[in-house]
Amino acid sequence: MHTLVRGLVGATGLAIAALSYQPDVAQAAYPERPITMLVGFGAGGGTDIVARRIGVEMEKSLGKPVVVINKDGGGGLVSWKELVAAKPDGYTIAMFLPLNAAIQKHLETSKTWVDPLKEVRMLGMVNEDAWGIAVKADAPFNDLKSFAAWLKANPNAKVSDGGPATAYHWAWVAFMERFGLKLRTVTYQGATAAGIKAAAGGEVVAAGAGAAEAESMVSAGMVKMLGISAEKRLDAAPAIPTFKEQGFDFVFGPTRGFAAPAGTPEEIVKTLEAAIRKAYDSASFQAHLRSSGQGGFYLSAKDSETYVRKVDDEFRTLIEKAGMLRK
Amino acid sequence: MLNLSNALTIGLPLVLTPTVIGLTLLGTFIGLVVGSLPGLTATMAVAIMIPLTYSMTPQESFALLVPSYAAATFGGSVGAILINIPGTGAAIMTTIDGYAMRKNGEAGRAIGLAIAASLVGGLVSALFLATFAPVAARWALRLGAHEYFAVALFGLGFVAYISPSLLKGLLAGALGLLLGCVGNDPVGAYPRFTFDHASLIGGMTFVPVMIGLFGLSEVFVALEGDLSARDVARQQIHGIARSFWEALRMWPTMIRSTVIGLLIGVMPGVGPTIAAALGYGIEKRLGRNREAMGTGAPEGIVAPETANNAGTGGELAVTMAFGIPGDAVTAVMMGAFLIHGLKPGPTLFVSNPDVVSAIFLLFIAGNLLFAVLGIASLRFLVKLLETPPRYLMPIVIVLCVVGAYAASNSVFDVWVLIVFGVVGYVMRKIDMPIAPMVLGFILGPLIEDNLRRALVLDDGWPIGFLTRPVSAVLIGLTVLLFLSPVLGRFAGRKQ
Question: For chain A, what is the total number of helices (H) and then of strands (E)?
Fold first, then answer.
């Protein structure tokens, strides 16, 4: 009994020591100690999987461990607040979702948002999951054209999304605005799958969903995809036409990349950028993209900065037009 | 399509390999240990193992995860009985009579009953999962916003209704609902009671709130006196066989609870929690031994434990059928599917019958193994309670803090834990029941989310709740619950 107590006390002490261990910082040859990668979503989710797949490959080229820490909350915000509070020394980086960050900023989901234009330094983008539209399998339309015509005849039809704090909500808003449609979005928080189930059960007429997210329900004959808003058809789902092919010039998709705190030295940014690029090109990550249906999308550090500015602009306009700009 | 016999023929060769059997044992053991430590939960058991499974085959990874999920869920009930800290929402109702039995020196008997009830509920539910998964999926597809709202409201109403004091029960439930409002609102994403704190955007985390209210407050109560002078409650080791037999003799209770669990389990997330609440509540109203419920009645353990485990199979079926994770644990489990390139959804049953069969068998194996391990460790677990409080209490505090922090690696959550420890202490002092508050906190967001969704779907008209049969019946029953004292008095006067 007493051994157990001592064991527990000892183990707890060790755990606390391990948590508070902070080695001396000296900038000799970066990196000389493990790098922390913050992930603002739970272990096992889509974001976490991309982060860990890239992290494992980065370890190989950097020669130091990349430790993934999940800091769940606020659609990524909790992890980004921690990122921008960290020393800009290259030992703390984070998975960064520019669309989420822009929404948080302009919708002001919290007064303490992180400014993607000022507070972070982008290291590169690695993934894009194109948005698409799924409807019940026996719905009377088979393509976007007939769907749009039906929506014109049935204004205020209900469609599912994840709520205004998510990119998929603004996908519908942008889609409506671009093509002059009137829809009512209904929030299904947490999982796109819940929205797809609602479409299959007839609660809503359509669900916003990526091809990978809807695939299983599609092949079970419960829903069908009218299209995806990607530049070109996906390798993982070649049967689904793009919006563009159907005459709807609309490209939209949540993207994922990496960021360091603003003020990180240029050489370190270069090293990390190269490691991310190499990880993206690695056979194992490419194989993952093919098998999982998560989409590939690479941008260099510099292009990512431009991209983040573009996203910020787009969402500012979208949110302003919706009358929800809280600045 | 998958059925029982081909589940065995496809699944058995896959799971009967030395590696898979070894991992199953390991998973069950880790799940049981983590799940029964106060403050640590099933979510944590699964979450700490998931990064280890990234490089395994699907069978190996599920061999580690599925049994640990089953064992940790049961472990949560052990914590509920031993230290009054439920590991999961589904174990909340078990604290009421379980902890009372432990105080009477009957912890061994209580755990034995919980093992038997969990095993029966879990096995029935596994068979159900194997046989009726498609039926369960169709049933789940028919349940929409209106039905979710009505079920959650009914579950919460029932828990308040069976409280020793209806007023205090309602008050605690209402406070729980208020706590559930913290976080950005589901329709407009507008911050509510977040005090500009990013950690509160998604609402308060369940684990620290729960272990604060249940666990830390318990420690505070114990600290009132001189710890070293406190007597240790001697625990009798009850014959396992007797506990088992005793539980099986309550077959009417078990059947009631199993049916409830199977019907409500298909609601991802809250299924097992509401099932346990209703199982307990119905027992308290209709059971033969209803007078003793709340003071350490064996039915108070058998009813909720059968119901929540009967719910797990349905929950797993729906998670797999639609890819909708119900709670933090199943969300983590879903991640395991994606890691291996498997897409949860209706076609999983057709495209990967091997994986589904393996999961089904591993789920059964997990249920049987935790029963065996639970029985083997019973003597030790019960002896643990005889640790002098001056050693036990500090350990409980450390584990509570570690558990609160580890749920999302957040120091903020440790503060939440401490605040709710104090709140729980005050509630105990004024005899306000804690269970309705925690249930209100869990169900509040669900009630709000579905109420608002239903109203948006019907363009603001509430009539939809009464035109759909399932929700109309449940709302009718909820109204009856609250009118029954008045009606009873009225009837009494007439006589």
Answer: 11, 11
What's the maximum distance between 2 C-alpha atoms anywhere in chain A? 76
pLDDT of residue A28: 61
CA–CA distance, B483 with B157 (Å, rounded to integer)? 12
Q: Is the pLDDT of residue A226 over 60?
A: yes
**B398: nearest CB among A12, A110, A201:** A12
Provide CB contacts within 8 A for A209, sequence distance 6+. A131, A132, A133, A134, A168, A192, A195, A196, A225
What is the amino acid identity at position B159?
Answer: V
Read off the pTM. Answer: 0.81
Residue B204's alpha-carbon distances to A47, A140, A205, B235, in angstroms, are 22, 43, 33, 37
Contacts of B187 in chain A (CB under 8 A): 163-164, 187
- Write out pLDDT tens, residues A76-96: 898 999 999 999 999 999 999
Angle at Cα B274 formed by Cα B107 and Cα B430, nearest 5°? Answer: 60
Q: What are the tokens at B36?
A: 């029964």
Burial B115-133 (b: 16+ CB within 10 A, else e): bbbbbbbbbbbbebbbebb
What is the residue-wise DSSP string for B403-415?
HHHHHHT-HHHHH
A81 to B198: CB separation less than 8 angstroms, yes or no = yes
User: What is the DSSP-derived secondary structure letter of residue B342?
Assistant: -
| Cβ contact B345–A197 (<8 Å) | no
Separation of alpha carbons B387 and A26, rounded Å: 48
Strand A206-208 to strand A157-161: parallel, antiparallel, or no bridges (unpaired)? parallel
Strand partners, A223: A136
Asked, as a colleague might, if the bond just before B344 is cis with ω within 30 of 0, I would say no
Q: Nearest C-alpha of chain B: how many angstroms from A272?
A: 23
* Cβ contacts from A onto B, under 8 A: 165
User: Cβ distance B94 to B304 under 8 Å?
Assistant: yes
The burial class, CB within 10 Å (0-12 / 13-18 / 19+), for A251 is middle
Question: Given this model, what pLDDT does residue A20 score?
Answer: 47
State which amino acid sits at residue A128: E
For residues B406 and B154, give the distance between their C-alpha atoms in angstroms, rounded to a whole number. 33
Please state, in angstroms and rounded to a whole number, the distance separating the CA atoms of residues B98 and A126: 51
- Whole-angstrom Cα distance, residue A319 to residue A322? 5
Q: DSSP code of B212?
A: I
CA distance B461 to B451: 11
Q: Which CATH number is A34-129+254-321 given?
A: 3.40.190.150
d(CA B24, CA B359): 11
Fold of A138-246: D-Maltodextrin-Binding Protein; domain 2 (3.40.190)
Q: Which residues, 6+ apart, have CB-to-CB distance to A317 below 8 Å?
A: none
- Per-residue pLDDT reduced to its tens digit, B433-484: 888 899 899 888 888 989 999 999 999 899 999 999 989 999 999 998 888 7
Report d(CA B331, CA B69) in Å as an integer. Answer: 12
Q: Does B231 contact A at CB distance below 8 Å?
A: no
Distance CA(B24)–CA(B13), nearest Å, equals 15
The interface predicted TM-score (ipTM) is 0.77
Domain with CATH 3.40.190.10 in chain A: 138-246
CA distances from B215 to B11, B37, B38, B265, B273 (A): 41, 11, 8, 27, 19
Locate A299 and state its tokens. 């941008």
Task: Give contacts of B 133-162 with A, CB under 8 A.
Answer: 140-142, 144-145
Q: How many residues does chain A have?
A: 327
